[in-house]
TrEMBL record:
One of its GO terms (molecular function) is proton-transporting ATPase activity, rotational mechanism. V-ATPase is a heteromultimeric enzyme composed of a peripheral catalytic V1 complex (components A to H) attached to an integral membrane V0 proton pore complex. InterPro entries: ATPase_V1-cplx_csu, Vac_ATP_synth_c_sf. Subunit of the V1 complex of vacuolar(H+)-ATPase (V-ATPase), a multisubunit enzyme composed of a peripheral complex (V1) that hydrolyzes ATP and a membrane integral complex (V0) that translocates protons. V-ATPase is responsible for acidifying and maintaining the pH of intracellular compartments and in some cell types, is targeted to the plasma membrane, where it is responsible for acidifying the extracellular environment. Subunit C is necessary for the assembly of the catalytic sector of the enzyme and is likely to have a specific function in its catalytic activity. Subunit of the peripheral V1 complex of vacuolar ATPase. Subunit C is necessary for the assembly of the catalytic sector of the enzyme and is likely to have a specific function in its catalytic activity. V-ATPase is responsible for acidifying a variety of intracellular compartments in eukaryotic cells. It comes from Gossypium davidsonii (Davidson's cotton). The keyword Phosphoprotein does not apply. One of its GO terms (cellular component) is vacuolar proton-transporting V-type ATPase, V1 domain. This is V-type proton ATPase subunit C.
Length: 377
């Protein structure tokens, strides 16, 4: 599937069918590997010249906006598919692959009546796409909020022993709590474990001998228990800190641990549900935006062709996808088919070469026909 297309319109001198046949003939002879399609645009309501000129000023800006929303949704789809471990699905508009929708474009008269003013059609498309973008922001924010909460919990459960949540490392039998005795949890540097084992009983008075047990070890630290009288716990913390051992504040609570477990499970379920919902919404919304974008492009070709070639509307619109190496040859073919009289008046500069209309002839980067590029990937 090609990802970069040119949408162009050529002035018709005799008949559109004759020009189309000539174009097909030239492409097949000199650039046979360039896909070529008719871009069928209905006869739209022209309006006044002033309204067309005013509309033309806004078309490039609106196209940039709609193109940006389209690619934003596409990137979101790619990210969600990657995180979900799904194969990349071909994006569609009502079941039709987007490249086929472009190359076989048919105007939706029910959605965009051709008798509506061009400004009304363009504004309606812009409003619809803006609403979809706003909806995307809300849905992505909701999903990212749950994902952020889940990531925060996972970081607490998988970080260093100096900062991570210890509840899933400690069992009920590891903790002794009575009227006089308490069990503390000490985080000991991995290479200071011998020092700990030889000194913890003497860091303060009333430490239960041989009460320290290693519960867990990571790349930096080891987690040890120690049991002592509660009234000397603060003295023990101070002495341990002076020796480079960190006593973590910890209170074992089966209820709190179960509550955290349930919270984690709910967040995982919420994340999966929101991810799936967001992905399905993105698939549908991408199709809506792409369809709106192609109708916008049709309006753009029509309006710019009227301004470029005059009234009554007499132009051939088509879609091409030349290779990078073949672009220069295709440009030459298109220019050769243009009316020489038109070439002497105003040249069209493509947006990727500077945007908008250039001045009078002589600009080597400009073309004597309407042309702009669509990137669908």
């Amino acid at each position: 599937m090609a990802s970069r297309y040119w949408v162009v319109s050529l002035p018709v001198q005799n008949s559109a069918s004759t020009l189309w046949n000539n174009l097909q003939d030239q492409i097949s002879k000199h650039s046979f590997d360039t896909p070529l399609y008719r871009f069928n645009i209905p006869y739209l309501r022209v309006g006044t010249l002033d309204s067309l000129l005013a509309l033309s000023d806004d078309l490039l800006k609106s196209n940039t906006f709609i193109d940006g929303v389209s690619h934003k949704i596409r990137r979101q789809i790619e990210e969600l598919e990657r995180v979900s471990g799904l194969e990349t699905n071909a994006l569609t508009v009502d079941g039709v692959p987007v490249d086929s929708y472009l190359t076989r474009f048919v105007w939706d008269e029910a959605k965009y009546p051709t008798m509506s003013p061009l400004r009304e059609i363009v504004d309606g498309i812009h409003t619809q796409v803006a609403k979809i973008e706003d909806d995307l922001k809300v849905r992505v924010a909701e999903y990212n909020n749950v994902r952020g909460q889940l990531n925060a919990i996972n970081r607490k459960q998988s970080g260093s022993l100096a900062v991570r949540d210890l509840s899933n490392l400690v069992k009920p039998e590891d903790i002794i709590t009575s009227e006089h005795l308490v069990t503390l949890l000490a985080v000991v540097p991995k290479y200071s474990q011998k020092d700990w084992l030889s000194s913890y009983e003497t860091l303060t008075t009333y430490v239960v001998p041989r009460s320290s047990k290693k519960l867990y070890e990571d790349n930096e630290y080891a987690l040890y228990t120690v049991t002592l009288f509660g009234r000397v716990a603060d003295n023990f913390r101070t002495s341990a800190r002076e020796r480079g051992f960190q006593v973590r504040d910890f209170e074992y609570s089966p209820e709190a641990q179960e509550s955290r477990k349930q919270e984690l499970e709910k967040l995982v379920q919420d994340q999966d549900m929101l991810r799936s919902s967001l992905l399905q919404w993105c698939y549908a919304s991408y199709g809506e935006v792409f369809s709106s974008w192609m109708h916008f492009c049709a309006v753009r070709v029509f309006a710019e062709s009227i301004l470029r070639y005059g009234l009554p509307p007499s132009f051939l619109a088509c879609v091409l996808s030349p290779s990078v190496k073949g672009e220069k040859k295709v440009r030459s073919i298109l220019e050769g088919l243009c009316d020489s009289a038109n070439r002497q008046v105003t040249y069209w500069k493509t947006e990727d070469e500077g945007g908008a209309m250039a001045g009078l002839g002589g600009d080597t980067d400009a073309h004597p026909y309407v042309s702009f590029t669509i990137n669908i990937a």
